[in-house]
Amino acid sequence: MEKVVIIGGGYAGIYALRELAKNKNIQITLIDKHTFHNLQPEVYDLIANKSNIADVTIDLTTLCMGLNHDYVEYKNLKVRNIDKEAKKIYTEEQEIVTYDYLVMAAGTRTFFPPQIPGLNNAHDIKKLHWAMFFKQSFENQLFKKISDEAKQCDDTHIVVVGAGLSGVEIAAEMAYNSKMFFKRGNFSCDNLKISLISSSGTILPGLSQNLINISHQRLKSLGIKVITSTKLTKLEDGYAHLSNGTKIPHSFLIFTGGVEASKIEGLEDFDTNGRGQIKVNQYLQVPEHKNIFAIGDIAEIKNKDGELMPPNVTIARISGTNAGRNILNMIADRGLIQCKPKLDGILIALGGKYAAGDLMGLVNVKGRLAYEIKKYVFSSYRKPLLKLIRTGYSKLKKLS
Contact, 66 vs 391, CB < 8 A? Predict the structure, then answer.
C-alpha cells in the first residue's frame, strides 16, 4: 500500500488531504505540531472579540476520523529532519515516519528582521496562542481605561507595524471594536489610539488603487492614524522608534510585516527563493525529488505568466487540490496536471460588518455587501470541515 505523508494541517494541507482521501487504497498520514487547523483569516475577529477560539479552529483528530477512509491518521508531531533518500521523517518525539510520497504544506511564519533592536521580543500574530495573548492585552487595555477614568484618562496607544492585509484587518477590527465598546458603555475615557505603520508609500501595496482608496477612507473614519513611507527602527522602553525620526509610545505593539517559509531541517538542498519558499515545477513537484510536492505558502507558486502568487487561501486551495490529484495520478500511472493558479479576487475585513473587495479584477464592492460575500466565502470553506469533525467526533464517542 502506497504511503502519503502531509506535513502541515493548514489550508493547503487540508485541501490535499481531502483530495487524496478519494483513493481508499492508500495510507495517508497528516503530521502537524498543533492539534488544530487554524482558520488564520478569522483570527483577527478573535483578537477584536468578535468570535471565540472554537470559531477559528478545526480539530485535526476528529477531522481525519470524519473522512470516509480506513487508512487516514493524524500524528501530533514536530518534524525535526527529513531524509529524502531514505524517505524518512524524523521527529522531536523520536518517532520515525516513512513515506512514498511527501506533501510539504508547513506554511509560513511572520518574519522579524534581526536588524531591528528589540523586535526579538515581539510575537508572531500567526500563532494562535499569541493571538490569544493580544486579545487579552487588548481587553485589559479597555478595562484599564474604564477603571481609571474617574482619576485619569491617559492615552492608550496600540501600534500595528505592517500595512498589508493582516495589519489593515487587525487595526480596523480593533478600532471598530473599541469604538463600539465605549459607545455601548457611554464611557467618557475613550481615547484609545491606533497607529498603522507602512514601510511602503501606501497601505495594501500591490492591490488596486480603488481598493486602497476604499480601505484608507474606512481606516480614517475609524480614527486610525496611518503613517506611510516609514519603517520601524527600534523598540525600546515602551516606545516605537521610526525612520522619520519620531518615536511613539505604545501600550502594546503588533508586528505583521512580512513572512518567511517555516523552517524544517533536511530541506537545505532544495532550491528556495528569498522568503525561503521551495521552488516547484508546473506540477508542484520539487524538481530534484519528483515524489515530493510543495504547496501553499511554503512553495513558490507562479501563474502562467511567471508571476509569483501571493500566500492566501485561494492559492492554498488550488495548489493543495492539484498536488493531491497529481499524487493519485502518479500512483495510477496517469499523466500529471499542470497547476494554473488564478486569484478569484480579494476581500478585506474592515471592522464590524464592513469589508471591501475586488472580484475577479472586474468589480469593486464595499460595505455590508462585501462583508456578506466574505462571510459566505469563509462559510463555504468551514461548513464541510464542521461536517467532517462532527462525524469524526461521533466515531470517537462510539469507540470510547
Answer: yes
Check residue 272 and report its DSSP letter. B
Domain span including residue 164: 119-255
Give the ranges where the chain is alpha helix by DSSP (H).
11-20, 43-47, 60-66, 128-148, 165-185, 209-221, 313-331, 368-399
Q: Alpha-carbon distance 30 to 23, whole Å? A: 15
Single-letter code of the amino acid located at 361: G
pTM value is 0.86
Whether 26 and 100 share a structural domain: yes
Extract the C-alpha cell encoding 116: 531591528
Residue for cell digits 495594501? Answer: 204
Question: How many independent structural domains does the chain possess?
Answer: 2
22-28 — which CB contacts under 8 Å span 24+ positions?
Answer: 22/328, 23/328, 23/331, 24/68, 24/69, 24/70, 24/71, 25/1, 26/1, 26/2, 26/71, 26/331, 27/1, 27/2, 27/3, 27/71, 27/73, 28/4, 28/69, 28/71, 28/72, 28/73
pLDDT digits (tens, 9 = 90+) for 262-284: 777 766 778 888 878 899 999 99
Q: Is position 351 within any domain?
A: no
Q: How would residue 147 be classed by pLDDT, with cut points 50, 70 and 90?
A: low
Pick the closest to residue 175 from 391, 389, 396, 351 (CA basis): 351
278, burial (CB in 10 Å: exposed 0-12, middle 13-18, buried 19+): buried
CATH number at residue 149: 3.50.50.60
